[in-house]
Amino acid sequence: MSSRNANDKIALPYAEALLEYASENKLIDDINSNLSSIQNLLAESADFKVFLNNPLTATKTKKIVITKLLSNQVNGFLLRFLLVLVDRRRISLINLIIDKYFELAYKLDSITIVNISTSIALTEAQQEALINKLKNITSSQTIKLEMNIDTSLLGGFIIQIGSKVIDTSLAGKLKNMVFYLSNT
User: Fold this and answer.
1) Tens digit of pLDDT for each residue in 92-120?
2) What does the alpha-carbon distance between residue 15 and residue 118 come to, in Å, rounded to a whole number?
3) Running DSSP on this structure, what letter comes out for residue 138?
4) Domain ends where: 64, 88, 107?
5) Burial 111-126, CB ≥16 within 10 A → b, else e
6) By its UniProt entry, which InterPro entries does this protein fall under (predicted)?
7) Contact present, 140 and 111 (Cβ < 8 Å)
8) What pTM does this model have?
9) Using CA of residue 165, residue 168, residue 171, residue 175, what is the dihedral sign?
10) Are 55 and 37 in a shared domain?
């Protein structure tokens, strides 16, 4: 078993518990917003991320920093949840727990997350047309696009829905041609 799978299995119950609490107390929008803020904070502050991931940093120190930094920014339950993660030495999995939480929350709301890599940015009209086509393909009520610009694609795009990948990129077609020609 890879460490990613092991970490997924560790993170999932925490994400489930957080979503269950948020759902029961009608705090889903509030928790979603708070978790997005925390995710942005971790993405923007490499030092904070290193601080949380450092096993040599004392638990008490991590709790003090998290409390001072986030007490006025996040829901009280979410703050206590983060402190429990520190106590259980799972705070290093916070990004994974947040990702799992959003996956579960989106499933609950019938939202499908679609990762799209393109060589250039898509216009609003192109994004809307793609969303409508993806709704038909996935039978989902709502599609959330996560756009990535990848200049190595040369043209076209790659769509990833869960584990399914649709590669319409010029680079992908060239790779398929090379594979086909090398096998004949």
Assistant:
1) 999 999 999 988 887 777 777 888 888 88
2) 31
3) H
4) 107
5) ebbbebbbbeebeeee
6) ATP_synth_OSCP/delta_N_sf, ATPase_OSCP/d_CS, ATPase_OSCP/dsu
7) yes
8) 0.65
9) positive
10) yes
